[in-house]
């Protein structure tokens, strides 16, 4: 199997797992307690509560026009993954309804339902986003808007749209607590989705200033297995020229790199910054 086919398979497995987690959240935590954490799924919960249309059917009906827009704006590859995610989410919702029954729930404590429902929803959404899809609704709308406003993450744009849905939920239910608990679930879901999309892939950049920069650089390349770049630096106070080493490592290599530096020079000056994405050799492949 080629590397490309293997990556595509992993992406679709990730999207599938994400949709399954979202369906568990909706079926066993949010829907039984009438918590509507924004989005089409949140609206679907309220619509089922009001007029009895199942949430999987509402999910498909609302997402069809959004999917067409997404296909035009985001391209065919994104569209295929989104279509797959929309269908899988509705399929899992229906499957869990059949398996666990209409009235199944894990807890009747609304706060616990909001927290754990939000956690599962966020992890599921994050997985779908991370592997290049959306499940339709406001996350698809958020992905479309992210195309035009790349400085704002898809999850945050989704949250803005979802707050409108959450506020509407309180009005429809004539119960402010519906909105308040829904906001808790929404906040947790967005924070976790953001974390999974961005922070799980973070790396650390080390800037090292030492009198033994040459030896330190060689040991880092040999023992840590990372490339090192020497930058020219000059102290403004002393006027002395000195090399500044730049090295980017993953989380597992942080402690090892610090150990190497301090073994060579206990007085070395080290600056460490967090990088949310690194592209290139040894890290994430640059996609054309």
TrEMBL record:
Subcellular location field: Cell membrane
Q: What is this protein called?
A: DUF2179 domain-containing protein
Q: Which segments constitute the DUF2179 domain?
A: 226-280
Primary site of residence: membrane
Species this chain originates from: Clostridium formicaceticum
* Keyword Transmembrane helix attached: yes
Q: Which UniProt keywords apply?
A: Cell membrane, Membrane, Transmembrane, Transmembrane helix
- The organism's lineage? Bacteria, Bacillati, Bacillota, Clostridia, Eubacteriales
- Please verify whether the record's keywords include Nucleus: no
Q: How does it sit in the membrane?
A: Multi-pass membrane protein
């Amino acid at each position: 199997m080629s590397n490309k086919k293997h990556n595509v398979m992993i992406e679709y497995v990730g999207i599938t797992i994400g949709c399954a987690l979202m369906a568990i959240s909706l079926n066993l935590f949010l829907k039984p307690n009438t918590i509507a954490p924004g989005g089409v799924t949140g609206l679907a919960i309220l619509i089922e509560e009001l007029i009895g249309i199942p949430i999987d059917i509402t999910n498909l009906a609302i997402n069809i026009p959004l999917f067409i827009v997404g296909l035009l704006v985001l391209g065919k590859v994104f569209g295929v993954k989104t279509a797959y995610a929309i269908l899988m989410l509705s399929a899992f919702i229906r499957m869990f309804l059949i398996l666990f029954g209409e009235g199944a729930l894990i807890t009747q404590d609304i706060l616990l339902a909001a927290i754990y429902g939000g956690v599962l929803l966020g992890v599921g959404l994050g997985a779908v986003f991370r592997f290049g899809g959306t499940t339709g609704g406001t996350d698809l709308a958020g992905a479309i808007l992210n195309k035009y406003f790349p400085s704002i993450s898809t999850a945050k744009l989704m949250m803005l749209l979802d707050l409108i849905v959450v506020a509407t939920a309180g009005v429809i239910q004539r119960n402010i607590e519906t909105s308040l608990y829904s906001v808790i679930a929404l906040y947790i879901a967005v924070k976790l989705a953001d974390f999974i999309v961005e922070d799980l892939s973070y790396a650390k950049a080390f800037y090292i200033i030492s009198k033994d920069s040459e030896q330190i650089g060689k040991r880092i390349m040999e023992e840590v297995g990372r490339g090192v770049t020497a930058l020219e630096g000059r102290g403004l106070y002393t006027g002395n020229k000195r090399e500044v080493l730049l090295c980017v490592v993953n989380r597992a290599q942080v402690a090892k790199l610090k150990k190497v530096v301090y073994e060579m020079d206990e007085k070395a000056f080290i600056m460490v910054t967090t990088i949310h994405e690194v592209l290139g050799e040894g890290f994430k492949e640059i996609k054309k």
